[in-house]
Amino acid sequence: MAMLTFQKETPAVVATKTVPITSAPSDPAPFGSRALASGELAHLLFDQQDRDRVHESWRKLISGKEFSYRPGLPAVARTALSYHRLRLVNDAVDNAEALASDPRRLASLHEWTGFVDSGLCTLASIHYNLFLGSVLDHDGYRRNLSEFTSMQQTGTFLCTELEHGNDAAALQTTATLDPVTGGFLLHTPTPGARKFMPNTSMTGGPKSALVAARLVIGEQEHGVFLFLVPLSDETGPRPGVTVVPLPERMGSPVDHCLTSFDQVRLPPEALLEAEHGQLAPDGTLSSNVGNRRKRFLRSISRVTTGKLCMSAAAVGASRTALAIAVRYAHSRHISGPKAGEQVPLVAHRSHHARLLHSLATAYAMTFLHRSAVSAWSEHTSADKADAERLVAVAKGWTTWQARTIMIECRERCGAQGLFHVNRLADLQANVEGTITAEGDNLVIWVKAAAEMIFSHQADRHGLSDRPAAERQLTDLDFLRGLLAEVEALWQTRARIAVRQGPFGDPIARWNETSGPALEMVSAHARLKATDAFLAAAEQATDSTARFLLESLCRLFLLQQLREHTGDLLAEGHLAIEHIRELPRAVETVVAELAPHMLTLVDAFDLPDEVLASIPIASGAGVDQYLDRMPDVAEPVHA
């Protein structure tokens, strides 16, 4: 498709001027007041008193020159750069084992690095969480992990197989006990059992892996366990290990490969042991978990923290995309209603309303993510299942919302949003990985839905005995209560469906139930986000910050309730007048928030160095970026 270029008329022909107009949103507060409000918002967004410990080191790290944008690198060089940066992360960490054991800091690492280098984000998730974290969660106390904490060896994780993705519990790779040596023979029995997509190439240097395999003792198979396997050294893959690179995928390149094993000998200590399985010298396996599926889930339990990491990456990327789009909306000017007059894009409701809806969602995502991280970090054995489910539900909702926000931000920046240097196109592609990684969203929501139908009760506080007609759409408690009723309604429908489904046909019965059950999960996610949002607003001490948070939360709730007004009206929770008032209520809160959009994105606390490297986020365009772009990309040494 040809692109038309329009040349500006000279001042001799048309004299243009940029003038403020009354309908153009611009932050009306003095800079000091705006800074005070954005500072309070940032305090609430980023873990309050724990902000420096959890976030500041990563924020400072990505501000450095080594993390600056590198244009023109081919895929292999970009992957090598991600490994180089992984080592920089490791150099900045006082204790790699402590990082792997701290869900807050580990998630925050992904929140701050994901929008700078999503390849690095992927590698960090694998090395620190899936690999190092899994070793520590099993029997890491009795192992020397120095070669991994110093990154002489990069750790990777091999679970999914070519023919076993979401049904990984059915994987076919075997580790057979050798009764003579007490070690194991690791083997890939079929082409479909090759490990799919691990980062196992020689890029980044030597690697070791945790390999999920079926433990076979004699003629008996005992379920899936993890085995520590050296994959390569400085010369290449070790004997019996075959690595085949996969085609380049969308998003930041990572060295994804197919990996297989041909009777690879492992020492006895290769087996990772814990309460779910311990092997005696005589070859007897003892376990306090009799169910093989539960043993498997115990072996890969680190995927829960991995879900937090994916949510964090999506949240950080969403805020970055919005910061770019909002700044561009203020700096990009177009023709105004009068001849020779120019107004910023943000002056138009058709433009700023869409970004404000996304901003409301991004704030809700951030507060929900914080709630999920806290729940998982502080869970006990009594509430572990609830915390784990919240993490899964939040991951699904957050990463799906991130995709929607990316698309909106990219479109609002027009053709400028298509250039890689302006980051939006890359952010949009990279978020797809978070949707699939650590459990495909739909699959983990189906699991949550099945658990919640009868074992969960919707929290319906917020609706009083007052008639619906007496409540106002400005009342946050009322709106919150309405969303709770939406969750309860879909839960009731799911319960009816499962009870009335075809007898003797589990799949047919679930097919009848899954639709309303998934709607229940969706409403539950949004309700948990609302509760986290409201809790944050209540803690605001600055009046402007509180006003902005309450207004954003109101906008978020009104948007969530739009699609359910028919059900709420039918059940008597809404009055006819509410339905008529809803569009105006949305317009009113949008108009109130529009002048404060820069304050809202200032609170995202993106480093000045990052924003300055993005042309449209710093008041420039691709044409001005060309003036300072190097002719040849610098080499990368991993």
Features:
21 helices; globular; alpha+beta; 638 residues; 6-stranded mixed sheet
Topology:
Layout: E1 17-18, H1 31-45, H2 51-62, H3 75-92, H4 96-100, H5 103-113, H6 118-138, H7 146-149, E2 154-158, E3 174-177, E4 184-187, E5 195-199, E6 207-217, E7 220-230, E8 232-233, E9 236-237, E10 241-245, E11 256-261, E12 264-266, E13 278-279, E14 285-286, H8 292-299, H9 303-331, E15 333-335, E16 341-344, H10 349-377, H11 384-412, H12 424-436, H13 441-455, H14 476-500, H15 506-538, H16 543-561, H17 565-570, H18 576-593, H19 597-602, H20 608-612, H21 622-628
Parallel strand pairs: 1-16, 2-6, 3-6
Antiparallel strand pairs: 3-4, 4-12, 5-11, 6-7, 8-9, 10-11, 13-14, 15-16
Account of the 3D structure:
This protein is an alpha+beta fold and 638 residues long. 51% of the residues lie in helices and 11% in strands. The chain is built from 21 helices and 16 strands. The strands form five sheets. Strands 2, 3, 4, 6, 7 and 12 form a six-stranded mixed β-sheet that branches. Strand 3 (174-177) and strand 4 form a beta hairpin. Helix 6 packs antiparallel against helix 9, helix 10 crosses helix 16 and helix 11 (384-412) packs across helix 13 (441-455). The chain is globular. Mean pLDDT is 90; it is low at 1-24.
